[in-house]
Specification:
Layout: H1 3-6, E1 9-12, H2 22-40, H3 44-58, H4 68-74, H5 81-87, H6 98-106, E2 110-115, H7 119-129, E3 137-140, H8 141-145, H9 153-162, E4 169-173, H10 176-185, E5 189-193, E6 204-205, H11 208-215
Parallel strand pairs: 1-2, 1-4, 2-3, 4-5, 5-6
Helix pairs in contact: 2-3
Length: 225
């Protein structure tokens, strides 16, 4: 099945795929513990131990795991979501390959983002990096659908919004379950991006430059269909 004839849309995850994890990690792993420690006059170490245990107990299959206002209210922290994000805004950054690759793909494919990131994070990261100009649609699964991307029908809903069948979309992301297994179950093409280079397999890429090379060939291997 030729890529040039059937694939019209390339979909990207955001955090860990387009943007580096520094900003998001700082909000969850530094900012929230700092405020908790300060308000309760405990050490940062104890604050992090407690808060990380809450994150782990909830897990990333739960919608609230992504919801910054939920956590600030639950922990009774005297800081607004907007202020907390603004404190670490300077850490928002793209991987070096992102802008050249998006620019090269934009004229040939419709580009979209499908992310689990809450809309507060997503809109700020897109605005701060200036990548919004490349994308036809940007979906926050947790905010727009009230779901988590692990459920494959989310991808079906995105296809319905776009008015195209799953086979016309290639999705790229860094989470095996959310960004590779789920979209493939509904018939999308998918690649797992592993920027740490810990994994090597036919369906794994280590940079977006590799993606450009793959989609420039005549067709995708049957494995990806």
């Amino acid at each position: 099945m030729g890529v040039s004839k059937t694939m019209n849309v390339i979909s990207f995850d955001l955090d860990g795929t387009l943007t580096t994890p520094a900003f998001v990690d700082a909000v969850w792993r530094v900012g929230i513990p700092q405020h908790y420690a300060a308000q309760r006059a405990i050490s940062m170490e104890k604050a992090r131990e407690y808060i990380f245990s809450l994150y782990d107990a909830m897990g990333d299959h739960d919608l609230n795991w992504y919801d910054l206002p939920f956590w600030l209210a639950y922990l009774k922290l005297a800081v607004s979501p907007e202020q907390l994000l603004a404190d670490f805004r300077h850490l928002i950054a793209l991987y070096p390959d992102v802008l050249p690759v998006l620019a090269s793909l934009q004229g040939c494919y419709k580009l979209i983002i499908i992310s689990n990131a809450n809309r507060l994070f997503l809109d700020l990261e897109v605005s701060a990096t200036g990548i919004g100009r490349f994308f036809n649609r940007i979906f926050s699964v947790t905010s727009d659908f009230g779901r988590v991307k692990r459920e494959e029908d989310i991808y079906q809903q995105v296809c319905a919004h776009l008015g195209i069948p799953p086979a016309e979309i290639l999705h790229v992301g860094d989470h095996r379950e959310f960004d590779f297994d789920a979209p493939r179950r509904v018939g999308m093409h998918a690649y797992l991006i592993d920027r740490s280079r810990h994994e090597s397999a036919p369906h794994v890429i280590h940079s977006l430059d590799e993606l450009v090379k793959i989609i420039s060939i005549e067709s995708l291997p049957e494995f990806y269909l």
